[in-house]
Amino acid sequence: MLDRTEYENYWYAFQQKLDKILDERNMTYRGLSIELGKSPGYIHDVLSRRIDPSTISLFEMAAYFGCSIWDFLNITK
Length: 77
Hints:
With 77 residues, the chain is mostly helical. The chain has helices spanning 4-24, 29-35, 42-47, 55-64, 69-73.
């Protein structure tokens, strides 16, 4: 089980990775939210921890960026 520090570290890493991808593609949180068919504030709400992303949403983000969920989250099997 993750302790609070590990959780915070993973969450921060996820946000940094998403920010990097969006910066490379000259996209905003709002633009990604709309492209994923979500409300315009969806990504902002996820990153500000108002809501948790569903597993399906994470797979949709990975597919949108043309990579596997493993690559998107930088998880090794």
